[in-house]
Amino acid sequence: MMMTANKARALRALTLCNSRREACLMAGIAERTLSGYFHDSEFVAELNKAYDTMIADATRQAQKSLRQAVETLTEIITDKETNPYARINACKILIESTLKLIETNDILNRIEALERKGKTNENGI
Questions:
Q1: What is the rounded CA–CA span in Å between residue 12 and residue 27?
Q2: Is residue 124 exposed (0-12), middle (13-18) or buried (19+ Cβ within 10 Å)?
Q3: What is the pLDDT of residues 53-82, one digit of tens each?
Q4: Rounded CA gap, 44 and 51, in Å?
Q5: Pick from 33, 90, 91, 120: most CB atoms within 10 A?
Q6: Reduced to 3 states, what is the DSSP secondary structure of residue 109?
Q7: Is 1's pLDDT higher than 80?
Q8: What is the sign of the dihedral through the CA atoms of 20, 22, 27 and 31?
């Protein structure tokens, strides 16, 4: 089934706007019409796919900036001329972010190990 022009405009507007009301104005549809679209599984699936793409794009962009962010925090931490409170805050940010990154990486590694173990058990190996 092909998506109508109104649904396509609504989909695009939802990815660009901060509220459903704003999206309705941009798409030129009534709020009640948009509410009805959320009962259409195809529309909801396409919207979820659009949001997933946005999140993946933002994640890649953040990953590309990670090294520069760490370098900037390191410069602030090591610059003796920088305000001490700014240095302390930079240390706090760097430590908290590093710990969270380590924790997340550890969780992902454990999940991958469990998935490999599950596949091995399924195959009788």
A1: 8
A2: exposed
A3: 999 999 999 999 999 999 999 999 999 999
A4: 10
A5: 90
A6: helix
A7: no
A8: positive
In angstroms, rounded to a whole number, what is the distance separating the alpha carbons of residues 65 and 59?
10
- The Cα 50–Cα 25 span in angstroms is 20
**From residue 14, how far is each of 3, 30, 111, 116 by CA, in Å?**
15, 13, 33, 38
State the DSSP code for 87: H
For residue 7, give both structure tokens.
Answer: 């649904």
25 vs 5, 43, 47, 52, 67, CA distance in Å?
15, 18, 18, 24, 40
Q: H helices within the chain, ranges in order? A: 5-16, 20-27, 31-37, 41-78, 84-122
CB contact burial 8-18 (16+ within 10 A = b; e otherwise) = ebbbebbeeee
Q: Token match 């459903």: residue?
A: 20
